[in-house]
Write a structure and sequence with these properties.
Elements: H1 5-13, E1 18-22, H2 26-35, E2 39-42, H3 46-49, H4 61-74, E3 79-83, H5 93-105, E4 110-112, H6 118-129, E5 134-139, H7 145-148, H8 158-174, E6 178-182, H9 186-195, E7 200-203, E8 211-214, H10 216-219, H11 237-253, H12 268-273
Parallel strand pairs: 1-2, 1-8, 2-3, 3-4, 4-5, 5-6, 6-7, 7-8
Helix pairs in contact: 2-4, 5-6, 8-9
The structure holds 3-methyl-2-oxobutanoic acid.
């Protein structure tokens, strides 16, 4: 049975770590679901990791929905969050609710959006009021990469940590069921995690959060363009895949593939008619 916001919030109360990973396609979603992750995020990292864009800003709502549908078909038990792409929720509350609603219409459990400004808080309140569960995201927020001057650790001073704590509380008060906290010092993450009732899911935020989220392609060593320092690779699938393809090329060029076991043959009397 699919996990719900209630399940995710209960895990914090039980002090059970929440496990979240990204997926952008059916087969990856199935692997994550079978392995037992709690939450799958169809992250807008889809832009760089699966579509080859430079950053998340180029991703469109239609591209996101296309991939989200595949993920939803692949996962039966995990809670599924769809990331709202840049400009799909910042321009007007009406657009935002409509785009978030489209994610729920295709079967998503919730949407994620970045920031905690006054406008974003109003948007979240409206979404929550019409029954759309919202996952917040503060700290480093990739859709603001240009404004933040690159992938930089946020909340490095006590004052900045307190400002992030205020943002997290505002998101909780606006109705977010959980919050992603990205690229902050461990001390900042602990301060926020201990002072919030809703789960704080960290990425590059140390071990003190209620759960962890990573880009699956980073964890599996499939996305090799860039490796953030907080990532631990549990496999080297990028290299293994390249080696496998080189072996395939070698085998085809040297007549080793396809062999007898990978070919179909006529019954002998039929084959004789050909000669
Ligand atoms: O898009 C994404 O992958 C994210 C991270 C939190 C994993 O937002």
């Amino acid at each position: 049975m699919r996990k719900t916001t209630h399940t995710i919030k209960e895990y914090k109360k039980q002090k059970r770590k929440i496990i979240a990973l990204t997926a952008y396609d059916y087969s990856t979603a199935k692997v994550l679901d079978n392995a037992g992750v709690d939450m799958i995020l169809v992250g807008d990292s889809l832009a760089q990791v699966a579509l080859g864009y430079e950053n998340t800003l180029s991703l469109t709502m239609d591209e996101m929905l296309h991939h989200a549908k595949a993920v939803i078909r692949g996962a039966r038990n995990s809670f599924i969050v769809v990331d709202l792409p840049f400009l799909t929720y910042q321009v007007s509350i009406e657009d935002a609710v409509y785009n978030a609603g489209r994610c729920l219409q295709i079967g998503a459990s919730a949407v994620k959006l970045e920031g905690a400004s006054e406008d974003i808080l109003k948007t979240i309140k409206k979404m929550v009021s019409v029954g759309i569960p919202v996952f917040g995201h503060i700290g480093f927020t990739p859709q603001s990469v240009n404004a933040l001057g690159g992938n930089r650790v946020q909340g490095k001073t006590a004052e900045q940590a307190k400002e992030l704590l205020k943002q997290a509380k505002d998101l909780q008060d606006a109705g977010c069921f959980a919050i992603v906290l990205e690229l902050v010092p461990s001390e900042t993450a602990v301060l926020i995690t201990e002072n919030l009732d809703v789960p704080i899911i960290g990425i590059g935020a140390g071990s003190g959060c209620d759960g962890q989220i990573l880009v699956t392609d980073d964890l599996l060593g499939k996305y090799v363009d860039f490796k953030p320092s907080f990532v631990k690779r549990y496999a080297e699938l990028g290299k293994e895949s390249e080696d496998a393809v080189r072996n395939f090329i070698y085998d085809v060029q040297n007549g080793n593939y396809p062999g007898i076991n990978e070919s179909f043959f006529m019954a002998e009397p039929e084959a004789e008619k050909l000669t």
